[in-house]
Amino acid sequence: MFGEAIALHHFDWQRHDSMYVFLLPCMYFLFNVILHFKGKRFVTLRTTSLIIYIIHPMMIVVIRLFSRLFHLQSLLVENSIVHYFMVCLTSVVFGVVLTAMWNKYKPKKAKHTTDTDRAYLEIDLNNLEHNVKVLKGAMPQKCKLMAVVKAEAYGHGIYEIVTHLGKIGVKVFAVATIDEGIKLRQYGVSGEILILGYTAPARAKELRKYDFTQTLIDYEYSLLLNKQGYDVMTHIKVDTGMHRLGFDAKDIENIFAVFSMKHIKVSGIYTHLCAADSVDEKDIFFTNVQIESFYNLLNQLKEKGITIPKIHIQSSYGLLNYPELKCDYVRAGVSLYGVLSSPNDRTKLQLDLRPVLSLKSRVILLREIKKGDSVGYSRSFVANRDSLIAVLPVGYADGYPRWPSQRAERGKGFQETRLTSSHEFTSE
Ligand SMILES: *Cc1c(COP(=O)(O)O)cnc(C)c1O
Questions:
Q1: φ, ψ for residue 368 (rounded to 5)?
Q2: Is the CB of 235 under 6 A from ligand 1?
Q3: Is the CB of 316 under 6 A from ligand 1?
């Protein structure tokens, strides 16, 4: 810009020192610099800057007029620095005043409201925050929380969950698919995102573009991914007994071979425990064999001169029943949302986890029926006394399944079933 100014003056090309050539790249650069500072949004500033942009040429005219009227030209116009600051000052002052007026008198937009006529989910972000604290407290010191937010954050709504987790300092996320990962990036997640599931090798370019960490599910897959020619960050998944995804824990040669693949960057290694939820002796034995074979593998790799930065084993139940394991991450899913897979599960650690989700509905109709009358399809409920019946406007379309029929009485039925205790009714 400086060069442009010098050139303009030297060749006397134009009347004003407006630098049209370098203005655009300069602004582009400065705007990108500003974007690096992540902070709160001030929506009002947006309006103010727009107003300043529109009115500043008028302020030039106003200052010139004012100077002429009061004979201040030599000070306010001819001294270009003073002139510049006067235009800035008056533009900002008018910008702020006009913004305040605009905010006061602008047409009111309809507020976003949630349809709560029938049934709705209530997401308690305070409980989410509480669970994060409790889980972190239960983890070994240098271990970090990897928030598992696959499947719309277990149905809680991925946007709300992820933005709140980001606000309270969670930086590492896990999703099942690359498309879930892309969503997170679009929502502004800048931390590490591990894709737990399979991504077609043909999408390697996107893995690179969005800076994802991809799970290597076996040797063939690693070869194919490497062949695409894009450097991809990866975690090796080791199968220690679940027998779904992962290299066989004994397949040391192939695991070793991955480290010499040109485009595969390994930043972590993990396994998944498939019976960690059980306190049955046989399952505990099985799980310990899993853990042992995983650490064995790590030792063998170490002997070959390989240490891998990030190691992780536990998901929710892994932490709750095997809290002593030393790892870099705990991949917490269900526990983050404050529930267990089965509400009656007993676990070694008893953490005060609080349900994040409640399904709520309201009573829209009360009616009396006589003893012997039935309610609903197949006459499935028959009153054994004169009864008062409450009708709630909730059904399949609202995500409420058929099987709790007649079991969901006053919360009691829920405790006895696999539907977690997080489901309650305001009407109770
Ligand atoms: C889903 C998943 C988790 C999270 O499990 P939770 O039991 O919900 O904590 C952890 N690791 C892997 C590999 C998963 O697929």
A1: -100, 135
A2: no
A3: yes
Would you say residue 208 lies in a domain? yes
Q: Which residues are catalytic?
A: 150, 377
Residue 414 sits in which domain range?
358-419
> Among residues 71, 105, 139, which one ends one of the domains?
105
Of 272, 274, 315, 317, best ligand 1 pocket probe by most atoms within 8 Å of the beta carbon: 315
Query: Cα(146) to centroid of ligand 1, in Å?
Result: 10
- 418 has pLDDT over 60: no
**Ligand 1 touching residue 148 (CB < 6 A):** yes
For 91-148, the pLDDT digits (tens) are 999 999 999 999 889 888 777 677 778 888 899 999 999 999 999 999 999 999 999 9
Q: Are residues 228 and 310 in the same domain?
A: yes
Of all atoms in ligand 1, which is nearest to the CA of residue 317?
Answer: 7
Task: Give yes or no for residue 213 having a pLDDT over 90.
Answer: yes
Tokens of 142: 């240098």
Phi, psi of 248 (to 5 degrees): -60, 135
Question: Which of 196, 320, 340, 357 has most ligand 1 atoms within 8 Å of CB, for mutation?
Answer: 196
pLDDT at residue 414 is higher than 50: no
pLDDT number for residue 426: 35
Distance of CA 159 to the CA centre of its chain: 6
Query: Is 63 close to ligand 1, i.e. is its CB under 6 Å away?
Result: no
In a domain, 114, yes or no: no
Instruction: Locate the ligand 1 atom nearest the alpha carbon of residue 176 and give its number.
Output: 15
Beta carbons of 335 and 131 less than 8 angstroms apart: yes
CATH code of residue 401: 2.40.37.10
Q: Bridge-partner residues for 233, per DSSP?
A: 213, 265
Q: Are residues 183 and 318 in the same domain?
A: yes
In this predicted structure, the answer to whether residue 422 has a pLDDT above a threshold of 60 is no
- On the question of pLDDT at 419 being above 60, the answer is no
- Residues 49, 50, 51, CA angle at the centre, nearest 5°? 90
Q: How confident is the model at residue 226 (pLDDT cuts 50, 70, 90)?
A: very high
Alpha-carbon Rg for the chain in angstroms = 31
Same domain, 330 and 308: yes
